[in-house]
């Protein structure tokens, strides 16, 4: 553990208050103007925005099983580069994270990597098959202390299984994160169902396939008085159902991905499978509804759904290609572009949607806290005036499937502090030996 002291000079906390921040022993020691500390390493961040370390509730780290696509270490570095200090490891690994053994393995790998906290998500059902509940209690009691459960990639389709899962997790204030996809309505589906899919001759994925499951599950959550989280909402209709459920006091939270805040289904006209993702890119009116919902809090958080795929499974014809795209390294810039520059969120809002609220939903200790004396020193610094060009050959992820290759994005993450360690300096990941 570091004993280094750092003095961050000239940053603007949440984009509002210009203050210096003194870090020591992994915590924020002082926040005030014009601090001086002779023993501290000074980091000049004049004019940059300072946020609490970002928390991702939806990350595919691929380990164990697909280490050719990503590892806990490579995803941890990609996360730190994007300003994240906590990731949530989705359960659809091989083997599936449906036992205490697997979640403890992932948790330990995250601790060893040491760039971010990696909190494993447990599978709801054994093997993600949707039939028998997994070892939910054992995963909750393990050293990983799992509180979020998801079969993401698959929908927990059987309503009785979903009900049992929602009932089970109540005893430790857990939450079920649902990948809302009605399977019968999406057999063979390739992209959003609409004018573009008809024109391209690709099998459509109707909005109702998502909305039908969201509607069913908010009613189930209400019935058993448990906590439901909806993964990657993509449709205006889904937003309306969640808005209705929240107005009724149902305990539902929801996430939107950065790519669904920006990209639309007409990108499929290129037939470039880089834009093939589950759930699919939708229409501009859906994008506008999602932005509005994130702004007014109907959608609680942004989560990346970072989904690395090796080139063998992505550089092929659309029909054969895997679903998914990278997200960690570009998330904050995309949120800046779609939400801050459009006036829909201020930086305090960004801190809430990308740090405070996800940490609260998942119950992560020591994350999503205010930037004040005594808080753990998980800190992200973004310079909103710097643009950067995305280059898929420079990403820290082991995979290259970013949809933003060649895009110029606004706002560069320049520094990340994790437990008071300077893990990202001037946008470069530091080797652990050098920290
Ligand atoms: Zn999913």
Structural features, described:
The chain has 435 residues and is α/β, with parallel strands linked by helices. The protein folds into two domains: 6-50 and 374-434, Urease, subunit C, domain 1 (Roll); 53-362, Alpha-Beta Barrel (TIM Barrel), CATH 3.20.20. It has twelve helices and 19 strands. Strand 2 (17-24) and strand 3 form a beta hairpin. The longest helix has 18 residues, at 207-224. The protein is globular. Bound molecules: zinc ion (ZN). The site of zinc ion has 5 residues, from loops.
Question: Mind sketching the topology for me?
Answer:
Elements: E1 6-13, E2 17-24, E3 27-32, E4 41-44, E5 49-52, E6 54-55, H1 72-81, E7 84-89, H2 100-113, E8 117-120, H3 136-141, E9 148-149, H4 159-168, E10 175-178, E11 191-192, H5 195-200, E12 204-205, H6 207-224, E13 228-230, H7 236-247, E14 252-256, H8 258-262, H9 284-296, E15 301-302, H10 311-314, H11 331-340, H12 347-362, E16 379-389, E17 408-418, E18 421-425, E19 428-429
Parallel strand pairs: 1-4, 1-5, 6-7, 7-8, 9-10, 10-13, 11-12, 13-14, 14-15
Antiparallel strand pairs: 1-2, 2-3, 5-16, 16-17, 17-18, 18-19
Helix pairs in contact: 4-6, 6-7, 7-9
The chain binds zinc ion (ZN).
